[in-house]
Amino acid sequence: MDSTENREVEGQRSQNLQNNPLALPSDGSCPIDRLPPEILSLIFEHGTAAYNLEETDEEGSTTWNDFLEHHGEDDREEPSEQKSQAQEEQGEHETKVINEEGSDSDSGRSEYDSELSSHSEVLSSFQVIVSHVCRHWRTVALETPSLWTTIKVSSGDRPPFERVTAFLERSKSLPLDICIDSVFPGDLSDDEDEPVELFIDDLEVLCTLLIPHVPRWGSLEVRVASYEHMYKFLRAVSDPSVPPASQLRALELYHHDESDNDISTFPEPDFSDHFTLFSGSAPRLRNLTLWGVHVDWTQGWLRSSNLVELELAYHTQDVRPDSSAFSAMLRAAAPTLEKLCLEMSGPSGEWIIEPGAPEWSVDANNPILLPKLIQLELGFSPPSEVIALLRKLCLPSLKALALNFDNGDYTDLVAYLVGPSSTTSAVTATNSLSKEQPRNLLRGLEAFKIAGLPCSEESAGQMYNELVNLESLTLYMHHLPSPFFGNLYPQPSPKLEETGPRDPTVSYRAPLPRLTTLFLSDVSGHAVRRFVHERQWIGMPLRRLFVEEDTYVTYEEESWLKENLEKFDYFEGSDDEDDEEYESISSSYVSSVEEWDADDDSYESDSE
Fold first, then answer.
1. SS3 state of residue 137
2. Peptide bond before 185: cis, by omega within 30 degrees of 0?
3. Binning pLDDT at 50, 70 and 90, where does residue 437 land?
4. pLDDT tens across 214-255, in order?
């Protein structure tokens, strides 16, 4: 290469560097350093909020049919030519900044190597990353308390929990969002070692750090595989010295038990105590989930007038609330309650008033009006219990219903849902201000999920005749009689092989006239395409269709569906409904396994 060519190459390289936003300016200055600290702090707040939102993955927002759409994330590599000089210059800049910080320079391991390495499978959290870029950014980050209010502890964490201590200090007096996930992941590959659940002694150390800050707790989520762990936690927060949880908005306690769900009594009598938490006071509580976890059902904060969402699941009969306590919970929450989920839980025994019952339960036998309840989920309870519950409730605003039953015959439940309500007159007689309940619960539904409903084959048609306002339907066909999908086809069946316009003399009938969105599992791609085509042909087109990811759909069928629908995609499901429910809950908290070195994170730098 002659000198002329060399000059041309150098000139092109110089031009590329001038146009490269990742390259340092020639005078060594950095434009972002001119941002006021207040603006930089705001940027950090938005970045941390986005990171936390992605991590917590809010699947269960308003209705369950907002499934996470299954999108495979492509791990695309840039062509080698495009990695070029820009990344080399960026790497030189990162190394320069870290060396100036002096972090771990003596140990031969930089902070960048430990937390920001591209070879690491799990990156550190956003606020930790930005606090290790340079001294100026670190100062701004550490003086922004809102960056440090989300505390996550996973099964791989061990004392002395330096990260927890640092976040508690840096968050100042702001409310805390805490997640303790002691359940090890269930998606390990064969070559990964199974992690050990958080030790009991470690949990005690963690509680010692967190409990003094109970008045700051804004949300709390605890997941355990062993009830001994949950018992230890419940006992810690029920100590008389624990102050009220004055800012607690959301409480979620999960015991993921792999034992037989058919047992009728609590299997660990040594841990059967019913505790009163937070000195019986959590006045701002809005969302409550108790999954296989029981407490003292008469404590004050369970009769909250602020409760918006209530989920009770997997309680044996002997640890459930009695009808008086359960009724009191619902009546207190009636002005605000929007979502109620009961799976293998609810009141124990019949709806009767016990002798000597407290004053707040004297109306336990009267109907319960829940005027704002829009979403109801019921599962894994005998038909008689479900019917008794529905007879007790008046739900004039119900828009979304989910049913998930596996054993027994629920034909009588379908008959009750289809028939007129028997609650309206009783409620109207006792409350002149009540809203009138519709003819039946099905007429007002806009979203309906049926994950399991053993019943007669005629039941599907009976239900569909009443679902005149339904817009979204979810069917797990591997747990349902075939007519639940078959009855959705128009009658008579259109002759789709014929060309030309539809015969105007033929009158077609199809259930669910307002149906626009359908979630399906265990239905072939061929059947799905035919259904979409026939609904389209008779003038009742489907707009959005989601099928379980293991559904067999040919390339031609998928292309046709994408061309004829506003949205066609796949959702993640499971043949085992229990596993699916567990996965959908577990995915709401994606624990990040982050290495924490207190020395690394508390360094002081001497230069900008």
1. helix
2. no
3. low
4. 999 999 999 999 999 999 999 999 999 999 999 999 999 999
- Model pTM score: 0.77
CA 152, 157, 158, 163 torsion-angle sign: negative
Residue 265, Cβ density class (10 Å: 0-12 exposed, 13-18 middle, ≥19 buried): exposed
Number of other CB atoms surrounding residue 391 within 10 Å: 15
CA–CA dist 563, 565 (Å, integer): 6
- Which residue in 570, 579, 529 sits closest to 548, CA to CA? 570
What residue type is assigned to position 97 of the chain?
V
* 193-207, 285-299, 301-315: the lowest-pLDDT one: 193-207
* pLDDT for the residue numbered 595: 37
Q: How many CB atoms lie within 10 A of CB 262?
A: 8
| Dist CA 439 CA 467 (whole Å) | 12
By DSSP bridging, strand 150-154 and strand 176-181 are parallel
Backbone angles phi, psi at 235, to 5 degrees: -65, -35
Could you tell me the two tokens for 85?
A: 């000089």
CA–chain centroid gap for 278, Å, is 25
Query: HSE-up of 161 (CA within 13 Å, CB side)?
Result: 23
Separation of alpha carbons 43 and 55, rounded Å: 18
Give the 3-state secondary structure of 380-412. Answer: CCCHHHHHHHHHHEECCCCCEEEEECCCCCCHH
**Cα distance between residue 158 and residue 202, in whole Å:** 7
- Evaluate whether 351 touches 327 at the Cβ level (below 8 Å): yes
* Amino acid at position 42, single letter: L
Q: For 240-376, where are the alpha helices, taking DSSP H only?
A: 323-333
Q: How many CB atoms lie within 10 A of CB 243?
A: 13
Retrieve residue 12's tokens: 């092109």
Q: Which DSSP helix (H) or strand (E) runs through 475?
A: strand 472-476
Indicate the DSSP class of residue 69: B
Looking at the DSSP bridge assignments, the partners of residue 531 are none
Contact 487, 511 (CB under 8 A): yes
